[in-house]
Amino acid sequence: MDCIFCEMIEGGAPASVVYEDDEVFAVLDIVQPRSHKVLVMPKRHVPDVFELEAAEAGALFAAVPRIARAVKRASGCEGLNILQSNGSAAGQTVFHLHIHLFPRFRDDEIVFDWPGEMAAREELDRMAREIGRELE
Ligand SMILES: [Zn+2]
Prior knowledge:
The protein has about 140 residues and is of the alpha+beta class. The chain is built from three helices and five strands, in the order αβββαββα. Strands 1-2-3-5-4 form a five-stranded antiparallel sheet. The longest helix has 22 residues, at about 55-75. The protein is globular. Zinc ion binds near residues 3, 5, 6, 45 and 96.
């Protein structure tokens, strides 16, 4: 299996980690710089929502509001879109289920560019620390 998210979870690939527990892993999205956009995923390699077990979904969605509140406090966003897309037909390039927490700001027209500009690791790490400090 060749999955960049599994490599990040196992510590073999760089990641700006926002949150981690026994079942859930959350990182800054490297291709959406300055957006505070976070990806939340199960630690187990689950390719898509069709193979997500109910208990895994419970752990995943239990983490989402905590992380969303931390993103709000760190970024000052006013709203937040929660998106989940499956498979290449939905525009995904990594086939490890992940939920996008996508901050929205008043009067923003588009925060989400795809493919986005790559952010510097230092900037992502700084943003991840800002969000991590806001976790309850
Ligand atoms: Zn994976």
